[in-house]
Amino acid sequence: MVDAVTPPSTLDAAGFAAAIRADRGGKAFLTVLVVAIMVVPALNLLVPGGSALHLSSYTVTLLGKYMTYAMLAMAVDLVWGYCGILSLGHGAFFALGGYAIGMYLMRQIGTRGVYGDPVLPDFMVFLNWKELPWFWHGFESFPFAAAMVFLAPGVLALVFGFLAFRSRVSGVYLSIMTQALTYALMLAFFRNDMGFGGNNGFTDFKDILGFSLQAPSTRMVLFLGTALSLGGSYLLCRYIIASRAGRVIQAVRDAESRARFLGYRVESYKLWMFVLSALLAGLAGALYVPQIGIINPSEFSPASSIEIVIWVAIGGRGTLYGAVVGAFLVNYAKTYFTAALPSMWLYALGALFVLVTLFLPSGVVGLIGEWRRHAGRQPKGL
Amino acid sequence: MLSRLQRWHDLKLAFAGLASLMLASTATPAGAVAPETGDLPELVGGLATASYSEKQALIKQLVQTHDPRVRGVLDAMLEGKLYSRTSDGRLFIAAENNDVLDITDPLTGKPAGSMQSGDAGKIGINNQLRKTLRVALAQFDLASTDVNVRLEAVREMLRAVDTESIAVLHERLAVEPSSAVKREIRAGLALADLDSSEVSVRLAAVKTLAESLNVDVYNRLTAMSQAPAEGEAGEGDPAVRAAAKKALRTIDRKRSFYSIAQTLLYGLSQGSVLVLAAIGLAITFGVMGVINMAHGELMMLGAYSTYVVQLLMPQHIGASILVAIPVAFLVSGLVGIAIERGIVRHLYGRPLETLLATFGLSLILQQAVRDIFSANNRPVETPSWLAGSLQINEVLAITYNRLYIIVFTFAVFLLLLAILKRTRLGLEVRAVSQNRGMAKAMGIRTEWVDAMTFGLGSGIAGIAGVALSQLTNVGPNLGQSYIVDSFMVVVFGGVGNVWGTEIGGNALGVVNQALEPYAGAVLAKIFVLVFLILFIQRRPRGMFPQKGRAADG
Prior knowledge:
The structure holds two protein chains of two kinds.
Chain A: H1 13-22, H2 24-46, H3 57-83, H4 90-109, H5 122-126, H6 142-166, H7 171-190, E1 202-203, E2 207-208, E3 211-212, H8 216-242, H9 244-254, H10 256-261, H11 266-292, E4 294-295, H12 302-315, H13 321-340, H14 344-359, H15 363-372
Antiparallel strand pairs in A: 1-4, 2-3
Chain B: H1 2-27, H2 40-46, H3 52-65, H4 68-78, E1 82-85, E2 91-97, E3 100-104, E4 111-116, E5 120-122, H5 127-142, H6 147-159, H7 163-175, H8 179-193, H9 199-209, H10 215-224, H11 238-287, H12 295-312, H13 317-342, H14 351-373, E6 389-393, E7 396-399, H15 400-422, H16 424-434, H17 436-441, H18 446-469, H19 480-493, H20 498-519, H21 521-538
Antiparallel strand pairs in B: 1-2, 1-5, 2-3, 3-4, 6-7
Helix pairs in contact in B: 2-3, 3-5, 4-5, 5-6, 6-8, 7-8, 8-9, 9-11, 10-11, 11-15, 11-18, 11-19, 11-20, 12-13, 12-14, 12-18, 13-18, 15-16, 16-18, 19-20, 20-21
C-alpha cells in the first residue's frame, strides 16, 4: 500500500493544552485524582487511628485496586471506544503483567518460604523440581521484571494483532479470537507443568525492593504510584487521541474501508493502538498484584475479561474518563453486594449489562451529559 | 475364486445355522408338550441316586437335550447347590438362609419354600465330574443362540485346553454359523497346536494365529520369534521363527489400523459433542448474526430439564431421556424466544452490544439456577440402555454413550438441515438472512421469522443439554465451559454454514483426540485453540465461507 499521507505528526504543547481544556470530564477526573493524591496519604498516615477521619490501610488498598481496574478499563476503552476493536481478552494482558511482577515477588521471598529453599519458590519444591526453569532466570532483578511487565503483554499483543489485523479479522470474529486467546492462556496457566504455580498461582509475597508489603508506608507508596500511573495513562491516551494519529484511528473506527482507500495503513494504526492498550493493561496488572497479594489463572478467564468491557460500557465508552467512572462504580457495587447480599451480585451485574446496553448506550457519563443539556432539546435517542 | 468359494461355504453354514436356530426357537415354547423333553425331569431326578459314573452318563444325556433349563441344573451342581430331599428324593437348588435352606425347583426356577438342612443331601461330585461339568456347561453355552454367550464359552474353554475340550471345539467349528466365534475357536485351537512337537503343525498354527488380536497370542508369538536362549522358552525351528515374525508384523499392522479406528471413533464422538453444542449457535450466530453469549446457559437449561423430568418420573429412567428431549427443546426454545423478543430485537445491527447484553443474561440465568437447584451439581441418572460398551474385537471397544452421541448428533443435524432446506420456515429464514429488506417487501413477517429462528437455535441448544447431561456434570457452570468452544467451531466451519459446523466440529474432535495421547487432554485443547486462532488468520471466514453478497454483511 502506498503511504500517501504523511505519518502522524506530534501534537505541539499548545494543541494538547487546548485539547485538555476542551475535555471537561477529563478535567474533573484529574482534579479528583490530584485531590486524592493529596488527601488520602494525609488521612491514612497523619490522622491517628481512632479518629473518624482516619482512612484505614484496607481502604487505601481497596482504592488502589479500583484504580488499577480503572487503568485496565481505560486500556479497553482506548481500543474499543476509539478503534472499534472489542477485545474480550484484555484480562490476559493484565494477568501477564501481574504474573511478571509476581515472579519477581516470588523470588524475593527467598528462604522465608514454607520450605525455606533459597532459590526455588515453594510450589516448585512441592512439585519436587530440582532447579529453576529457564524462563524464571532474571526475575530476581526488579528492572528485569519491570521490563517483562511491558514486554510479555506487548509482544503477545504485537504477534496476535499483527496476524489478526493483517488478515483483516475484525468485528465479532476478532472478539471471539481474543476470547479464545485468553481461554487458551487460562488453560495453560492452570497446568502445574507450566511452572507458574498452577491453580494457586502466586501468593504469600513478603517484600518489594526490600520494603515489606505489609507496612502502611509501602502500601501508601504503591497507592501513590498507582494514582500517578492512572493520571499519566490518562494524559498519554488523551494526547494520542487528540493527535493526528488519534483522528485517523477514529476515522478507521467509523469507516474502515474509506480510511483504507484514502491511503492510510489501517492495519498499522490498529496494531499500535492494540499494543499500547496491552502495555497499559500489563502495567495495571503489575500494580494490582503487589497491593492485592495474589495472582492466579482465574484472571485469564473469559468471564473476567468480559467484565472489564462491562465497566467501560457502564461508564460510557469512547470518553476514557467514562471507563474510570465505570470501573469505580461497578467494583464499588461488587464490594458492597458481595458482602451484603452475595446471591444478588450476579443478578445485579447481569441486569446492569442488559439495562445499560438497552437504555444507556453512552453509559453513565452520557446520562450526566444528557441532564446538563437544556431541557427543551430533544435527547439523543437510543 | 477361492475367496468366493469360501464365502459360499460361509453362506451355506449361515443358512444351516439360521435354520437350526429357527427350529430351536419354534421348539422351545412347545417344549413342555414335546414328547422327547418329557423325560427331562426323569433324567434330572436320576442324579439324586446315581453313582459317579452314572452321573457322567446322565450329564452327557442332559447336554444332548439342548434344553435351556438344563444349564441351571448343571451350574448348580458344579457349585454344590444341588440337593436332594431325603423324604421324597426330589431335587432342588438350595441357598442357605440362616439355618434353613431356601429351595427352588431346578427346572422351573420357581421358589418351593424351604427345608431343614438335616433333610437335605447334597449331590456329590468329584474332580472328574467337575471337569465334565465345566466342559458340559461350556458346550451348553456353545449351543446358545446368543453369539456373545458362545464367544464367552469358547474363551472359557480355551483357558484350560485339554483333549476333550479340543474335540468339542472341533465339533462346534463344523456347525458354527458366526464367523466371529469361528475365528475365536480357530485361534484357540491354533494356540493349543503351538505346543505340538511337529514342525508342520506349529507352522500352520502360527499362520492361523496371524489373524488373532489376542494379547496372549501376541506374547506367545513374540516368544516364538526368538531362538531358545538359556532358561527361556523359544522356538528351535528357523522356519517357524520366521513365520512367527511375519505373523507379528501382520498383527502389528492390524493393531495400528484398529488404534487409528479407535482414535477416529473417539474423536468423532468428542467432535459430536462440540457439534451438538455449536449447531444451535450455527443458527443464531451463523444464520442470524446474533452473538448469544447465553447460548451455553440454554444448554444448561436443557440439562436441568432432563434432571426435572427424571424427578417427575423416577420409575421410568430409561424413557426419561426420550421424554426430556422435547421438554428441553420447548423450555430452551421458549426462553430463547423470550430473549429475542425482550433483548436481542432491540439490538439488531449492533453485534457487540448484543454480546454484552446476552452475557449479562447468562449471569442472571446461572444465578437463577443456583438459587433454584443449589450451586452443587445435580445427579442425572444414565438409563441402562446408554451404559455399557460395544466390544468390536479385542483391541477395539466403544461405549454406547459415545456411539449414541454420534448417531444422535447426526440425526439432529439432518433434522436441522431438513428444516432449513425443506420447510417454509427454513425458506423464510434463509430469505431474511440474505436480504432482510427484500424479504420484508415480499410479505415475509421478518419479526416472526426472527423469533422462530432464534427459538429454533435455542431449542436445539436445549437438546444438546439433554445429551450433555449424560456426559458431564449438570451444574450452573455447564454452559460456560462450552461457550468458547462452540463459537470457535462455528467460526472454524464458516459462519452461516450448518455443514461447516458439522464437519468442523468433528474434525476438531478427531484432531484433539489424536493429540491427546502425546500431549495430554489440556495441552491438546490448548494446541487446538492456538491452531484455530492461526487458522482464522489464514481463512478469516472459516473452512467453508459463504459466497456472494450476503457474505459481506
